[in-house]
Every structure is written in structure tokens, then in C-alpha cells.
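Box 4.2: Ligand-aware structure prediction
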Amino acid sequence: MSIPVLTIDGPGGAGKGTVSRAVAKKLGWNYLDSGSIYRSLAIALQKQGINLANEFDIVKVAQAMDLEFDCGEEFSVKLNGTDITDQLALESTGNIASIIAALPEVRRVLVQKQKAFKQMPGLVADGRDMGTVIFPEAEIKVFLTASAAKRAARRYKQLIEKGIDANLCTIINEIEERDRRDMERKIAPLVMASDAFYIDSSEMTINSVIEEVLNLIH
Ligand code: DC
């Protein structure tokens, strides 16, 4: 029997993570946060002091990286045995992840780590190229987006609520810069799969997005 896959692609901050986790939980399916794999590599490179211009060494670290995901109640990730969950969400980690994700050989090395998540009873995969490159065979594909201004406002609110000082203009600039890099790279750029459902969450609550995705499945 084939293993069902639901892919949710889109730019950062559109709510993919929250929606994917909720849908996977509801269905009892596995969950792949593919961005966290690129983020983990970014952390490994920082720990080892690797220069981001040195593609050869970056690929070596990607090949040697041992990642353990716990996608239960509390999502956590161990890199070579050390818990790195707290560092994953940092803005600096996301920016480095976006830079190294443009390297073709890095993407090639990380393909199998992502495909390994496809297991019974099903998979919800979130990222940029889940429906176009990693799981083109997926039964249901969603492209979830929101305006850069809305995404920045949500991010700003999260940071302020955590007591972290933030500047809305800086966040908008960073979001636009990351969008541009993810969409313009030569390999596996962020594009909507031709057979994906388009959802713009700018004016939607997260619960209504979750409901819409569950309706697509049913
Ligand atoms: O979804 P995220 O913010 O955790 O992703 C961080 C970066 O990783 C993103 O800016 C680009 C890269 N990425 C990618 O290239 N392909 C994916 N499938 C997921 C993330």
C-alpha cells in the first residue's frame, strides 16, 4: 500500500509549521519540518567555525551530521547527540540556513534524510520544495503564503511576547531578503507546484487554515 503524503510549501512565517504540526497530530501522521534540517546544518557549521564561502567543507559537515528528531508532544532535535532545539528558531540560524540551502550539493546530500520520513501511516512535510522536488508524488499539495507585511507583523508579535527587543522594519527587510534568496536560487527554488492548492493566510486565523487543509484531505 502506498504511503500518503501531504506537502505544505511556502515562504517563512506563513504558518506552515503550526498548520503542519496540527494536521499531522489530527491524522496521526509523521511530520517532517525540512527547514529544521537546513537550520541544523547552519548550527553545525557555526559550532565548527566553518566559513560559509567554503562549499567543500559545508558539504562534508552535511554528510557527517547525525540528526535525531523527536516529533512527539514537544518537537526537539539532537545534533551529534546534543540538544539544539533552542537554537533552531533563532533569526540568525534561519538566515544562514537560507544561504547554504542555495548550494546544490548541500541539497543533494540532504535528500535522503528527508525522504526517510515517509513512513506509515502517512506524512505531512513542510518546507520550500516538498511538493516540487522531494515528494512530487504527494497526493495533496498545499502552497501556503501570506503577505510579507503580515508575516513580519506576526514575527514581531512573537518576539515582543517573548520579551525580545525587535524592530518591525528590520524584520520586514529580512523577510523580503530571505524570500528573494529562496525564490531566486537556481536549484529547487520556492515555487508553487502546478498541482498545489493555494492558500493565502494573510486574513485568516490559524484555525481556519488548519480546517481548510483538513477539508482538502477529507
Ligand atoms: O522553513 P524555515 O524557515 O525553517 O527554513 C529555513 C531556511 O531553510 C529557508 O529560508 C530556506 C531553507 N529551506 C529550503 O531551502 N528548503 C526547504 N525544504 C526548507 C527550508
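In the box above, the bound molecule is 2'-deoxycytidine-5'-monophosphate. The domain at 5-213 is CATH 3.40.50.300 (Rossmann fold).
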